[in-house]
Amino acid sequence: MIKRFFSLFFVILLLFVLLPLVTDIKPLTELGITSQKYARDGAKELGAANLVTSVVVTYRGLDTLGEVTVLFITTAGIGFLLRKRSTGKNKKRKASEILKSGTSFLLPLIVLFGVYIFTHGHLTPGGGFQGGVVIASAIVLLLLSDINLHTDHNILNWLESLSGAFYILLGILGLILAGGFLDNRFLPLGEFGKIFSAGAIPIIYSLIGLKVGAELVGILSKLGREE
Amino acid sequence: MILAIIIVLGVLMLVAAFLALYLKDLLSAIIAAGAISLMASVIYIILAAPDVAMTEAAIGSGLTTIVFLYALHLVKKEQGEKK
Amino acid sequence: MTIITILGFLLIIIGLWGMLTRKHLFRIILGFSIIDTGIHLIMVSLGYIKGRTAPIFDSDLSTVDAVHNIVDPIPSALVLTAIVIGLAVTALMLVYVVQMKRQKGSLDISDYEELKW
């Protein structure tokens, strides 16, 4: 009883401490100084039509590198905690007929949609993270419909490691051949609005999408195979 | 009009948050948490942020629910669950 | 908008209350996920400017006068990474709870008392 009173008191205290967040904010009427620079020069300098993509991949590229590192560490932690404990005996329950035929019809469409999202990341809303997650959910559908599927963890490991290594390599190429680390101007900028424009942004984002998709498929197949 | 949509979605989100914490059945609580992410994704579209809306819909109401359901299956044994 | 900031703030309060008072380990993790959603709502709603549109240059939005026509792109970029990290940390916490259940057999947090004074 007294514990519940203390939690209520703590939550009300937090409410009072954070109240200036709500009463003192004035809605923005003008962009901040940094955002004004990105809005003025973003399209000309980098050639990408999607301003959020150019912020994520080049202007704030180091934060994206940190996020990819955090994902890698969490995947390694999950793989460590879920070591294989039993032999792979076959499960007895088969999937229903609707699930199997629906999966064989929908799976190529979902994978195609995912690849479309991350290759057009610099032209329309989307990009590497969204495309990788869509592809991972397609593989989960495949896992649900065929319960004795054996995902090859070797291929997933190699795919993820090579994508990460090439991402760093492209960043270093930007350091040598253009302005700085993860600068995308070492490939020609091309015409605004076409798919082969914006220098190295499509290549970098596709590599990020492959890496995120491979990691998520690894986590989900390990969780689904445990018993 | 937009304000009415935001108020309805906001009230639904708060009700779903209470349901996620206080329903007895864990399966329904997990689905309520997925519904919160879905409504947040609609609010992101109203706030003119389409990339964030796409990511929140795919991850919040897709993959997070799947990971919770896998973990629930791994934990369920013959004895009943406590509160 | 201000009302969405208030909504995110209320979600944080509800999530924190749930984490402090519920005893089942799964409900604590659900409360953490609700706090995450609330924080992201606050961050994106602080970057909104009334009457402007999304920062994507196409046939509707020209690059010439973009400074007066788009909302702030920086909070969107930051929240994009934060959502993916939230999923990874939630998955790691759930796997940890599964291992705790296997070691001790209980999902009630009042049974784990080794760190109490």
- Number of continuous helical runs of chain A: 9
Number of E-state strands of chain A: 0
Our measurement of the CA-to-CA distance between the termini of chain A, rounded to an integer number of angstroms, reads 39 Å
Helical coverage of chain C, percent range: 55-70%
Shape type of chain C: elongated
Helix/strand-derived category of chain C reads mainly alpha
Biggest sheet descriptor of chain A: none
Q: How is this structure best described in words?
A:
The complex is a heterotrimer of chains A (227), B (83) and C (117). Chain A has 227 residues and is mostly helical. Helices cover 69% and strands 0% of the residues of chain A. In chain A, helix 7 packs parallel to helix 9. The longest helix of chain A is centred in the last third of the chain and has 25 residues. The mean pLDDT of chain A is 83. By secondary structure, chain B is an all-alpha fold. Helices cover 82% and strands 0% of the residues of chain B. Chain B has three helices and no strands. In chain B, helix 1 packs antiparallel against helix 2 and helix 2 runs antiparallel to helix 3. The C terminus of chain B is likely disordered. Chain C is mainly α and 117 residues long. The longest helix of chain C has 32 residues. Chain C starts with a helix and ends in a 13-residue tail after the last helix. Chains in contact: A-B, A-C, B-C.
